[in-house]
């Protein structure tokens, strides 16, 4: 399938959305921007860095690529309207894989109310996507990283630590379960972004690098201290079970290889808490709100903004536990 | 220089533009879309396929990456407003190279009235850019590929064949001159796009794959025949000189290697004409206009739209001359 064949096929597999005035097939797309402004972001999803084709199916890859950009749009307080997808792939990529990729892109777009309106294709040794998301603010001010003020509440909507737990399970050779699904197919709560803007959020970010790292971006841009309350972030039963499973697999590995003393198997609440605080790629939304804001139940208050600089947990700096693998958890350089 | 360092540096090197309400550094950019619609396109520029780092300086790469997307915006009849740049690069890429790349992006944006408003960075084995262009229609209808009608004039603004001649010169080991500069740094006539829309253009495309190939897209989308008048496309002296230089270099090569009979050196008007008709990447604009439209001098009438299907030259199908290298001229799959 050549380039024009691939583009024509993708156009058939990708249903048009409500914002598409001109869709795939011309020099450029034309999209409704009723607000008179457009929110725009671009993100890479690279094979070998952000996904592995032996772990992620093509639909997973499409879903994850879409989620990364759509979550950035939501984190501005905007409603996603469209994606542009630049896809580079090996020439022997099966047509079925491209079709599943398109299905994954379309499904995640549909969750957010958007559509794939255009893109580009090229040859490359590995699969690579660069996805641009566009969105509409519906008359609201964008929610930046820089507006948090001392006294504000810090709240989160969406999952924390699930994708990191799933990656750890996959790395340990364990393939099933909801945490693995969360890693392969993040489900950001897109509509919580405009909701937060409507509630008067003073700052917002999507949790792609890890809760503390991303709150650090807010703290830096807002020149404030963010104090996270660990009692509000206790890992749930499924995260604790995942931590036990990973510890068990490492214990078994170490016993089998005989290279080193086996680490203790069993409960490891520190590992689960580390996933919550430092695991990225769930694309939860973290926002700050003026004191006294009444938040819907999906927004969990997890801390407070104070005068100062940086991010602390229970008033103290937090450090990764021994054995934390920065590379595996945080993925590659990516904005 | 890590990811956040690179992003911070790029932000310093890339001046904000008039459409940027929120620029580099948040989850997403916010751009003015005064028309209530936004024109959007994404294009790859890949090392080894679209450029070679031993031929193109970093500023050339930035300029070319910007030009590909900005020309697509202009070809819709829109004014470019902003770019988002996804840049993947080897970890040992010199800082000076990134700085020059940013300078090239900024310079080409400035030619078009736009700016770089956001992007992403990642690690990769080779340099790779995926550039999204955004633009504003200022109340006009977009000029699609599908509106050409029998009787319309076909006209071109900008250069044809220069980039292809430059690539042929570089491939022959000849590095200097205006054709090489045209290949390394295309200069699309961006403002001719909105101008054509204002003059009532019925269809438009940017010449990225080659004049006949791109007119073929217009003919296909409009279900018409386009008849190009070769007498209006005679190669100029500089293209003829480039054809002589390339033929001379091939002659010398063949004599030196002794592998095959040397091709004749000297005049080759067929080669120069082939560059004009089939060479891509100058990003000229080709448009159709209602009969009788009075065109400004930079729009050269080169043919006519008739009933039928496809593209002909002087009423007949045109074939590439013997020895035409599709791969070297057309580059990779790219929309």
Question: How would you explain this protein's 3D organization?
Answer:
- In chain A, the strands form three sheets. The first copy, chain A, has a six-stranded mixed β-sheet, sandwiched between helices.
- With 335 residues, chain A is an alpha+beta fold.
- Chain A folds into two domains: 3-136, PurM-like, N-terminal domain (60s Ribosomal Protein L30, Chain: A); 153-318, Alpha-Beta Complex (Phosphoribosyl-aminoimidazole Synthetase, Chain A, domain 2).
- Chain A has helices at residues 3-13, 58-74, 95-112, 162-171, 178-184, 192-198, 211-222, 237-257, 269-278, 326-330; strands at 20-22, 29-32, 37-46, 79-89, 115-123, 128-136, 153-157, 203-206, 225-228, 285-289, 300-306, 310-313.
- The first copy, chain A, starts with a helix and ends in a 5-residue tail after the last helix.
- Chain A has ten helices and twelve strands.
- The longest helix of chain A has 21 residues, at 237-257.
- The model of chain A is unreliable at 326-335 (pLDDT under 50).
- In chain A, helix 1 crosses helix 3.
- Chains A and B meet through helix 1, strand 2, strand 3, strand 4 and strand 5 of A and helix 1, strand 2, strand 3, strand 4 and strand 5 of B.
- Strand 3 (37-46) of chain A pairs antiparallel with strand 2 of chain B, so a sheet runs across the interface.
């Amino acid at each position: 399938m050549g380039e024009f064949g691939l583009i024509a096929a993708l156009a058939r597999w990708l249903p048009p959305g409500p914002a598409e005035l001109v869709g795939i097939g011309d020099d450029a797309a034309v999209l409704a921007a009723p607000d008179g402004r457009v929110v725009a972001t671009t993100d890479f999803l690279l094979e070998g860095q952000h996904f592995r084709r032996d772990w992620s199916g093509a639909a997973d890859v499409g879903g994850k690529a879409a989620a990364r950009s759509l979550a950035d749009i939501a984190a501005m307080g905007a409603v996603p309207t469209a994606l542009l997808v630049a896809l580079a792939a090996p020439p022997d990529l099966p047509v079925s894989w491209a079709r599943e990729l398109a299905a994954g892109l379309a499904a995640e777009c549909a969750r957010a109310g958007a559509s794939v309106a255009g893109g580009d294709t090229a040859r490359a040794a590995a699969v690579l996507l660069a996805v641009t998301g566009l969105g509409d603010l519906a008359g609201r001010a964008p929610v930046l990283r820089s507006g948090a003020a001392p006294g504000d509440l810090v709240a989160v909507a969406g999952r924390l630590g699930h994708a990191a737990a799933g990656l750890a399970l996959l790395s340990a050779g364990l393939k099933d379960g909801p945490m693995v699904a969360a890693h392969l197919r993040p489900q950001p709560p897109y509509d919580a972004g405009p909701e937060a803007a409507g509630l008067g959020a003073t700052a917002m970010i999507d949790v792609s690098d890890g809760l503390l790292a991303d709150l650090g971006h807010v703290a830096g841009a807002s020149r404030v201290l963010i104090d996270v309350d660990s009692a509000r972030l206790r890992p749930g039963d499924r995260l604790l079970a995942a931590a036990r499973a990973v510890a068990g697999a490492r214990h078994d590995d170490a016993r089998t290889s005989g290279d080193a003393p086996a680490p203790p198997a069993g409960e490891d609440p520190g590992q689960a808490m580390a996933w919550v605080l430092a695991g990225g790629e769930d694309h939860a939304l973290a926002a700050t709100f003026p004191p006294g804001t009444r938040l819907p139940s999906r927004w969990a208050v997890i801390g407070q903004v104070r005068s100062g600089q940086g991010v602390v947990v229970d008033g103290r700096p937090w450090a990764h536990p021994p054995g934390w693998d920065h590379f595996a958890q945080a993925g590659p350089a990516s904005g």
